[in-house]
Amino acid sequence: MLADLPDNDVNNPWKCNDSEIESRRDIRNWRVFSIDPPGCQDIDDALSIQELPGNRYRVGVHIADVTHFVKENSLLDVEARSRGTSVYLVDRRIDMLPTVLSERICSLRSGTDRYALSVIWELDENGKIMDTWFGRTVIRSSYELSYYQAHAILNDNPEQKEFFGDDYAPLKADLHNLFNLYTKIRKKRLSAGGLEFDGPEIKFELNEDGDPINFKVKKELEVMKLIAEFMIFANVSVAKKIYQHFPDSAILRRHPYPREDRFDDLKDAAYTKNIDIDVSSNLTLSKSIRMCKRNFAPNERKMLSQLATRAMQEAKYISSGMFETHEYYHYGLAVPYYTHFTSPIRRYADVIVHRQLLRAVENERDEVLGVNKLEDITTHLNKRNRDAKMVQRDCVKLFQALLLKNKTVISDAIVSKIRANGFLVKIPKYDIDGSVYLSDFDGNIRLPDDCLSNYGIESPVTNFEYIENQNKMIIYTEEKALDVNLLDHLTVKIETKESRSHLSTFELSVVSFGSDTNEVVEDIYVEEIPEDDIHQYVNDMKMDFEIPEKTEHSKNFYDRFQEFEHTDIQRDPLELSIPRKTDYQLVGRRIFQEEELERKLKIKKLEKATEVRTNTANVSTEDKFSDEINEVKRKVRVKVVRRVKVRKKARMKKKP
Questions:
Q1: d(CA 47, CA 175)
Q2: Is the per-residue pLDDT at 537 higher than 50?
Q3: Cα 327–344–351 angle (5° rounding)?
Q4: Using only C-alpha atoms, what is the Rg of the chain?
Q5: What confidence tens digit (pLDDT) does each residue in 277-295 have?
Q6: What tens digit of pLDDT does each residue of 43-97 get?
Q7: DSSP labels for 136-185?
Q8: Cβ distance 515 to 503 under 8 Å?
Q9: Beta-sheet strands, E only, within 481-608
Q10: Measuring CA to CA, which residue among 345, 386, 350 is closest to residue 368?
């Protein structure tokens, strides 16, 4: 594996090869810059923008060309595939690639020549794509900006003006042009149902020994959304390109529609302010979330966002040939095609996408890995991503426990769910979720005598009752009763409970009902999306190329679709939130129902024939027809599995 790594040391630093530079588009004279968290070492993306005549812009997203150094099926490639992703923990980072690549040779550091794979668009002033170029480039990043630096420049901070000197004015102009395009591109995507949630991200402050001494919830800046939006923009463009070239084996990122019943907690919480959450589509859900932002305090909004996120299904990598076209849709981002292209240093899926994009650009038809192997790899990558998220979550919990170890902390909490014997609460200050119990296992009430003093009730609690149909808890005292509803505030005590064999946990107990923290509902501006913009986005998102021909087993599905395309399932895009794709789902369900009826009729006929014949025939005849019934069931079952899961013939051949 070491032999696969390029030489790079103090005496012999790695440099770009002259012959390789000649084979690439040389844009080292462009003003390219990266915007990342402070102290970021593995920089895998950078941006550029240039003004063109006619109110147009040339915008580039430049991604580290990892595939130039990680050759397909090399030992380095096999190890990266096995790891699947980098894992970011509180106090360390476990890289997918060796440090010499992730932090040095591949990382797009400023002032050094680097190989990149770029997506360069020509956009009009409204962010509409007029032309797109994909290919290998060589760049020289001019600046490594942190989010806070970019934010300060956009807000004309005098310290940044002094720091950058003569470079400040052109850099500020670039950031403002990008910001103007970002607002329009984002507005279009949100108009089709793109979802945005307020999710807290914790940053720990560690001492010299690596122990946590403090932490804070990171504030989200608008420039963070800017970078994310252009990365989404690039991922969508690349997804279309590789799917056009490899309709049966493009690696895509799919986010399925969530189940409606999983939104019950969110609906119950929003209804406390008489807001009905409409989850019939991502567009209606997005509108409901915007309504919540106007009516809830900041910490309550974060909790509602968390409840909405929990209701979602997990986004997964797929091989395009294993699913029908309508199933590629990304529910959360509201885009019909999506992939991961922008982080090859830390995600192996992006490495595969880079290889597919290069073959598409060079018009090579050799598939990367092949259909069957690609499906196995996507399954592996999905598992590795899930494992990484769980490890990261547990690591945060561990450091939270270390921070609060041997301390008794009193804090405000918000009721997120009501149970028969207590509450689930969210503690915004520490980003802790936990259970609060009102009684012990023997039924003894475990509440302080003065827990209702915030409401002027001095007598102790005598009993409590959970009213399930009203989703509230009634607290009884000798004086009067108190109703506790969702999103009500409690004051709780947090204690760390250590374990010799498991992760430390938090034990929460009620100090008092109500809280000294009185959050105010802010008068915030929530942008409304005009319906004309929604229709415009629907038109813009239509494929600018013909959908490639599907494989033999799925042709019948599209033939059947044509029978229904101009009938009663045509709907307004405003209602569907995405063009046409929901129609496929309706047709798929309809076809499935027809096949199910056909299956039942076949079995019923065979069972009737069996009954008639077995009255006059021997046992062997009955066995014969029973076998025939089972064979029909088996054939139809295989047929239905193919319809629903849309497995390829190659997949079926794998089975012995």
A1: 10
A2: no
A3: 65
A4: 29
A5: 999 899 999 999 888 888 8
A6: 999 999 999 999 999 999 999 999 999 999 999 999 999 999 999 999 999 999 9
A7: EEEEEB-EEEEHHHHHHHHTT-HHHHHHHGGGHHHHHHHHHHHHHHHHHH
A8: no
A9: 481-484, 489-497, 505-513
A10: 350
C-alpha 199 chain-centroid distance = 12
CB 47 within 8 A of CB 178: yes
In this structure, are residues 315 and 257 in contact, taking their beta carbons and an 8 Å threshold? no
DSSP-derived letter for residue 16 is -
The amino acid occupying position 176 is H
Please state the rounded mean pLDDT for residues 181-200: 88
Question: By C-alpha distance, which of 436, 492, 489 is closest to 464?
Answer: 436
- The β-bridge relationship of strands 129-140 and 25-26 is parallel
Whole-number Å distance between alpha carbons of 579 and 627: 46
pLDDT (0 to 100) of residue 577: 31
Closest-CA residue to 302 (of 202, 419, 227) = 202
- Which pair of tokens denotes residue 203? 């940053």
Geometric angle at alpha carbon 271, from 266 and 276, rounded to 5°:
80
Angle at 67 between CA 64 and CA 69, to 5 degrees: 90
Q: Which residue has the tokens 């490594």?
A: 144
Neighbours of 261 (CB within 10 A): 9
d(CA 310, CA 314): 9
Contact 478, 459 (CB under 8 A): yes
Per the model's pLDDT, the better-predicted residue between 653 and 464 turns out to be 464
> How many angstroms from the chain centroid is the CA of residue 154?
28
Encoded amino acid at 202, one letter: I
pTM: predicted TM-score of the whole model, two decimal places: 0.78
Residue with tokens 């936990």: 434
How much is the pLDDT for 561? 35
Structure tokens at 3: 């032999």
Residues in the chain: 656
632/627 Cα distance (integer angstroms): 9
What's the chain's average pLDDT? 81
Listed range (128-137, 214-223, 334-343) with the worst mean pLDDT: 214-223
CA angle 504, 508, 509 (to 5 degrees): 150
| Whole-number Cα distances in Å, 153 to 49, 143, 144, 170 | 16, 13, 13, 11
Long-range contacts, 580-583 (Cβ 8 Å, 24+)? 580/326, 581/325, 581/326, 581/329, 581/336, 582/281, 582/326, 583/326
